[in-house]
Design a protein that fits this description.
By secondary structure, this protein is mainly α. It folds into two domains: 20-199, Up-down Bundle (Growth Hormone, Chain: A); 215-403, Growth Hormone, Chain: A. The protein contains 18 helices and two strands. Helix 5 runs antiparallel to helix 7 (126-137), helix 8 crosses helix 16 and helix 14 (255-279) crosses helix 16 (309-337). The chain is globular, with a radius of gyration of 21 Å.
């Protein structure tokens, strides 16, 4: 086998050339934006060290960010449907960039609270609009791959942003906000300079279906799916809640060991997720959601019996496989259920479900760990995720009126 043939065969991103070119403009903008993501991860440190806030008060500001994004996600998604998904992406990048640049100017607690709410609203407007654009761009058979490519951009960027932010924090905390804001504006420039815009061509039947569409909170298919999504996502977020406490405090591993678990996770995602989703693109929704959910359950559940470093690393690899299957499948399901004129709203409700899981999951996990111990925690995590996976196996298929009725859109300069 020639070297070129060998490289082609083992290329983890082989097969992506069939994706619409506009997907790669979206990928570039998302990557640039995520490469600067560092302000929110360092927000508590900035407020305690630069503004003299107590740890409790600083945590309250972070909670305020979460509450604001939770409340606004569906509204921002609906606004994206009205104003245009690409337009909302650009507006979010512009306004969040300016909000980040201005954030260090807030000195008083009231001003910091107002700046935090403004940042949450402007930054979180990007997510439902971005996911809706991906749905507009990719035909149904390519959507899992498109969402996987988007997650590749997010994980590549997040592997850089917080690390750079750590070094900037040692020099100047306000510089974190300047760099984060500058990358948001740079991402907007990518979209503007490339003339990025989605033009969707709908058939008459598709237009009629859009006119008759109903809000997401009245769609039983979506509500059933979101009810399963919250517990699965709550278990997933244990890697940011109970898991570091369990590994470092209870099992005695060094903090650097926990950092290496993140390296395993992101490394697998970068190398394997795209290929995995290309290989499973023909799977029905129920199969993808159930399989991903069960891998998630098995990975976190196995921590109940894992005490060595190698055993813990294996559990991370198992639930990472679940993450790689489940998360793109979740986005793809919402994209299929959503009527064409309500994609932003549906994606906003989906983002809200993840916000609920983030607010409840880490807190509940640490509470169970403190009161009942690690075996009960991780056994319970397995049970919760497995029940969610069983629920995923029964999600209704998209109704004919909700299924895509138009050919894939095109991007015009």
């Amino acid at each position: 086998m020639s070297p070129s043939s060998f490289l082609e065969r083992w290329n983890p991103w082989r097969g992506l050339s069939a994706l619409p070119p506009a997907i790669w403009i979206h990928f570039t903008a998302s990557l640039v934006n995520r490469m600067g993501t560092m302000a929110v991860p360092f927000l508590v440190l900035f407020l305690t060290r630069e503004r003299g806030f107590s740890a409790e008060h600083a945590g309250l500001m972070l909670g305020l960010y979460g509450v604001a994004s939770f409340i606004c996600s569906p509204l921002l998604g609906r606004l994206a449907d009205s104003a245009g998904h690409v337009r909302m992406m650009k507006l979010s990048l512009l306004t969040s960039g300016l909000a980040l640049l201005a954030y260090p100017l807030a000195q008083t607690p009231g001003a910091v609270a107002a700046a935090t709410i403004l940042l949450a609203i402007t930054a979180e407007a990007f997510r439902p609009a971005s996911l809706s654009v991906l749905t507009d761009l990719a035909p149904p058979e390519q959507r899992k791959a498109a969402f996987a490519v988007n997650r590749l951009a997010v994980n590549l960027g997040m592997s850089i942003g917080p690390a750079v932010g750590g070094y900037l924090a040692e020099v100047s905390f306000p510089s974190i906000f300047r760099v984060d804001g500058a990358t948001s504006l740079a991402a907007m420039a990518v979209l503007v300079l490339t003339g990025f815009r989605v033009v969707e061509h709908r058939s008459a039947a598709g237009a009629g279906a859009a006119t008759r569409s109903r809000p997401g909170w009245k769609n039983p298919n979506l509500l059933f799916f979101l009810a399963a999504c919250v517990p699965a996502a709550a278990v997933f977020f244990q890697h940011e809640g109970a898991m570091p406490l369990d590994l470092v405090r209870d099992l005695g591993f060094a903090p650097s060991f926990f950092g290496w678990m993140f390296t395993i996770n992101t490394g697998m995602i970068v190398l394997l997720e795209v290929r995995l989703n290309l290989a499973t693109s023909h799977w029905p929704h129920r199969r993808s959601l159930f399989t991903g959910g069960m891998f998630l359950a098995a990975g976190f559940g196995a921590l109940a019996f894992s005490r060595s470093g190698w055993a813990v690393a294996l559990t991370v690899a198992i639930w990472t496989v679940g993450e790689m299957i489940l998360l793109p499948a979740m986005s793809n399901y919402v994209a299929e259920v959503a009527p064409a004129d309500r994609r932003g709203e549906y994606m906003g409700l989906y983002s809200m479900a993840w916000g609920v899981a983030f607010g409840v999951g880490p807190w509940l996990g640490t509470l169970v760990l403190e009161r009942y111990g690690r075996v009960v925690l991780w056994s319970g995590a397995f049970l919760v995720a497995a029940v969610a996976a069983m629920a995923f196996s029964r999600v209704p298929s998209p109704a004919p009126a909700e299924a895509p009725a138009s050919p894939a859109p095109i991007m015009e300069a």
